Amino acid sequence: MALLRLKVDTPLFVLGGGSAVVGLDAFYKAGRLYLVDITSPKLMATATTGASLEELIKLATSNPAQYAYRSFPSPQIQDKTEVKIGVVPPASTIKGLLRTAYLWLALTQNHKLANDFLDTVADALNRGVHPKAVGSAGEALVFRRELKGGRRWDIFNSVVVREKGAKAEFRVYKVDVYKRTSVMATFYAVGLAPGSELEYEVVVRPRPREDGRSDVVLTDQDLKDALRLFSEELAAFERRRGLYAPQCDAVRLGFGAGRRWKTVLSLIEKMRPHLFTRLGSYMSHRLRRIWDDITVKMADGKPVGWACYEWR
After folding, report:
1. Which residues does residue 191 pair with via DSSP β-bridges, in sequence order?
2. What percent of the chain has a predicted confidence (pLDDT) above 90?
């Protein structure tokens, strides 16, 4: 077992908490944004019998702190603005990061496996598969094992990640979407503030065998090595394109982290540049939007999603 500790370095957004609209179920006052359930018994009890929606909103606006179920420090936001609500990164987010990192490690350690992986990606493009399935066959080469009786087993089923605790401070941020030096869009979101601390328990279990014994397929050290290699490579990529990266062992998580942190694209680019270019064109065509690294989401003047990490 190992403990993975994260300390948020730049505003981090995992947008799993829905959204609110200022002036309807969120109200700004004196540097805070208050989330209010307009149908809550507390508010209904204060209102006159049969009060209209407009009357309930007016009542909530007058003293949002009294009726709020949650509030956050916030810049001033105009009415009718949607605010996306962030949550603490769930264990599944961390497991997904570790899985991608391990995929990177496995491909860098085995040249034949890497070439077979790249061949499957090229074949997927030839067959015109759904964008989400482009890497599936290649990942199966790394993660899938064939068992007796024709059964299949994914080696990452042996990895269990649990949320252990969090010292989380949430704030509302204005997020700017940059395309090179121009702001193309702006939105507001509740995210984890720098300094927030998160902890996850990572357990790697041996695979039970039918004879009662077990096989060690992965180890804690495998995951530590994988995350170190993956994070170093991707942090170097961020610095090469002139973006901020913290001076620590660090990863990018959540909304706005970018496609590189959720895939092994950088490895594909390094090993087969022509396949990388072809993949970009294919995804842009199928997704009907430009699929590239040009846009960057920024909050408080820095790229979002950075967190320093350490293993214990």
Report:
1. 171
2. 85
CA distances from 86 to 72, 186, 275, 298 (A): 11, 16, 35, 16
The dihedral over CA atoms of 136, 285, 176, 228, expressed in degrees to the nearest 10, equals 30
**Local structure of residue 247 (DSSP, 8 states):** S
Residues 6+ apart with CB under 8 A from 50: none
Q: Looking at residues 237-252, what average pLDDT do you find?
A: 97
**In contact, 8 and 195? CB cutoff 8 Å:** yes
Q: Are 253 and 93 contacting, i.e. CB atoms less than 8 angstroms apart?
A: yes
| Contacts of 217 by beta carbon, 8 Å cutoff, 6+ apart | 145, 155, 158, 206, 207
Chain length of the chain: 312
Please choose, from the candidates 161, 14, 2, the residue with its C-alpha nearest in 3D space to the C-alpha of residue 85: 14
